[in-house]
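Support case: S-adenosylmethionine complex. Customer-provided input:
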Amino acid sequence: VKAAKEHFIPEDLNKVLENKVMETVSDLYHVKVSVVEMTCLGDADSEGIVSKSVSSHSDLIPGVYEGGLKIWECTFDLMDYFSEAKIEFSNKTVLDLGCGAGLLGIVALKGKAERVHFQDYNSTVIEEITLPNVVANCINEGSSRKASKPPAKRPKKGEGSPDALTKCRFFSGEWSEVSQLLSSSNKLFSKYDIILTSETIYNPDYYSALHDTLAQLLDKNGHVYLASKVHYFGVGGGIYLFEKLIEERNVFRTSIVKTIDQGLQRCIMEMAFK
Ligand SMILES: C[S@@+](CC[C@H](N)C(=O)[O-])C[C@H]1O[C@@H](n2cnc3c(N)ncnc32)[C@H](O)[C@@H]1O
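Agent response - structure generated as follows:
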């Protein structure tokens, strides 16, 4: 298993955005991944996941690369659900678990969350995708970009409210390891009011670690919003299998709050302690 590590935001924010080209996705800044793939073949990817995923034509290499370089479709389902259900992030402590691009956490941050933490299995994803995305969205907050204007290819540097950045922390590593690091951290760790997690139940081998991490990190009155395909063909996971484990463990109650039927069937599950 991959050990847990905290990634700190460099003082010079320009460093984070060096060599990055930004696009917008659902009104949020997002690094152009093809550019990351081109610039990431040397030291920047000490895990070697970019070349491994390209050469194996695979979005998932169990235990090596867990999919965080691309944005998976359930992220958009969950973002839609936030607006439909008017989920409130203001003053909440939030964890984007298995964050990849980190768009869910960024939405929470824009919703005035008090604290947002991001976790991905892969350190390269955190360094090359998540951190640049969060920085780009934070420093451009407050600049008066009209909605009708096309987005700048590169966000203006050094302006806006990096204040929001002080609310963020970034972690890589396997779930049990990260959970242990967070809970044993002497920096007055507090549990999360909201845990957001999208497309993280594709592999049944990880269910136990995921369940225990949620149980360990969620506040007693907190809520998990989990977005998933109903079934992951080829990998074997899916919502019913994960629900079965949750029932056996008897810690959480669950409800399916939305199903999406276009294309592959998907759903959103809410979880809270019994
Ligand atoms: C398929 S990606 C989804 C990324 C993102 N949430 C999205 O919707 O675009 C799965 C995410 O879960 C994380 N993940 C999967 N298995 C993990 C494990 N066993 N330990 C830690 N993180 C894991 C990966 O790093 C990745 O961020």
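The chain has one domain: 5-273.

Case will auto-close in a few days if no follow-up is received.
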